[in-house]
Amino acid sequence: MACNAIATANATIRLSPEQAIAALVALAKQLRPEHTPRVHAVTGDWGETMQLSLGEILVTTGEGDSRLWFWHNTTTGTTRASEKETYSFANPATTAQLAAQAANALYVAHVAQAIRTLQQFGATSNVKRASNGAITLTLTAR
Amino acid sequence: MQNFTIVFTPDGRIGIYAQDGTYTEAAETISAIMLALSIDGGLKLDSISPTEQHRADDDPQHIAYHQHQHA
Question: Which of residues 85-104 of A touch B (CB under 8 A)?
Answer without folding.
Answer: 103-104
